[in-house]
Design brief:
Elements lengths: L1 H14 L2 H16 L2 H14 L1 H6 L3 H4 L2 H27 L2 H9 L4 H31 L11 H12 L3 H28 L6
Helix pairs in contact: 1-2, 1-6, 2-6, 3-6, 6-8, 7-8, 8-10, 9-10
Length: 198
């Protein structure tokens, strides 16, 4: 979900009307410039302050659940970072690609999706992998609002046993997950860029 919102936000910044570009820029600045923990608190606890309004709009069922609040916050957060990754990657594609496509009579949407975006995604591949790894490690924040992810389960196990080694095992599990993902991403990058290698 973050990838889709991020791509749309990058498009708004690059090619949207000025008012839409300013909204996208403000959204990106807020979510990239504030801590993820503060964002989770803002959505989860802030929604309780707006409960009457949310009930009137029929949205309280969503915001009363910690899982949905965390999912929304993480999606908006990663979308802001991914939007900047996409924006920079698209901007690095030479302008001549647009001009060549126009000379061939291709429309702007066809040019973007068939020529510009595939090149930009190769440039964005490594930063996107880093962003995914960051979100996996950042998922530990979800435990502060009663979500029992890996860190939440670890805290519960420690509260029951007072065995500090459970945190060591949690760290090892995070390391295994991140290293596995890093290797898969490395393979994917090598596979998609094999035509660029000598």
């Amino acid at each position: 979900m973050g990838a889709v919102i991020g791509l749309l936000t990058a498009g708004a910044r690059l090619a949207g009307p000025r008012w839409l570009a300013l909204i996208a820029q403000g959204y990106m600045a807020f979510f990239r410039g504030t801590p993820l923990l503060a964002q989770v608190f803002l959505v989860y606890y802030g929604a309780g302050q707006l409960r009457p309004w949310l009930q009137d709009w029929g949205l309280w069922w969503f915001f009363r659940e910690a899982w949905y609040c965390v999912l929304l916050t993480f999606t908006l957060n990663t979308a802001a970072y991914q939007a900047e990754i996409y924006r920079v990657a698209i901007a690095t594609v030479p302008r001549g690609q647009w001009e060549a496509a126009a000379a061939l009579g291709l429309s702007r949407p066809v040019t973007f999706f068939r020529i510009i975006l595939p090149q930009a995604l190769i440039t964005a591949l490594r930063p996107l992998g880093n962003e995914i790894i960051f979100m996996i490690k950042g998922s530990a924040i979800a435990s502060v609002v009663t979500i029992f992810d890996l860190m939440g389960a670890t805290r519960l196990a420690f509260a029951r046993t007072f065995d500090f080694s459970v945190y060591l095992w949690a760290a090892i599990l995070y390391l295994v997950i991140v290293e596995t993902l890093r290797r898969v991403w490395q393979w994917l990058e090598a596979r998609l860029t094999r035509h660029l290698q000598r």
